[in-house]
């Protein structure tokens, strides 16, 4: 719906592998979509909070997750680019299910020290899945994982277009 697309299952698998979730981890997911990735993460960790800007996506994903008996999840309708949408507190992992054409540091603030952010950065045809680890309150490391192409998060800032 809304002209958006699900992540391909192979991308979901690579995301899960890169996140390396443990049973005590808490995850913030930006972009609930159908709830497919949400369910997969909920089976691996202690808690998933998922936000999406589309109320109908949130409602359907919430129902799917409830039918699976995965009680360690909660959902909210929110636009990740609005102030306060990411909530307070910190997370062991944060995953964005849409790309960022231009890297946005607001998302790297959400993982706890030692936590990680999984984000796809760039514009088609050149995008890279990147794992950002929070080393301290003021320091992060980045590691490129693999090339891919996924839809950008709605509302994500874009780079100015080159003009002759």
As a percent range, the share of strand residues is: 25-35%
How many separate helices? 3
Beginning-to-end CA distance, first to last residue: 37 Å
- Based on Cα principal axes, name the global outline: globular
Q: What is the string of helix and strand elements? A: HEHEHEEEEE
Number of strand segments = 7
Detailed description of the structure:
The structure is a single chain. This protein has 164 residues and is α/β, with parallel strands linked by helices. It is 19% helix and 34% strand. It is built from 3 helices and 7 strands. A 7-stranded mixed β-sheet has the order 3-2-1-4-5-6-7, with helices on one face. Strand 1, helix 2 and strand 2 form a beta-alpha-beta unit. It is globular and about 55 Å long. The mean pLDDT is 93.
Question: Summarize this, please?
Answer:
It is built from 3 helices and 7 strands. A 7-stranded mixed beta sheet has the order 3-2-1-4-5-6-7, with helices on one face.
Please write out the topology.
Elements (H helix, E strand, L loop, with lengths): L8 H11 L6 E5 L5 H7 L4 E6 L2 H13 L5 E5 L13 E6 L14 E13 L2 E11 L2 E9 L17
Parallel strand pairs: 1-2, 1-4, 2-3, 4-5
Antiparallel strand pairs: 5-6, 6-7
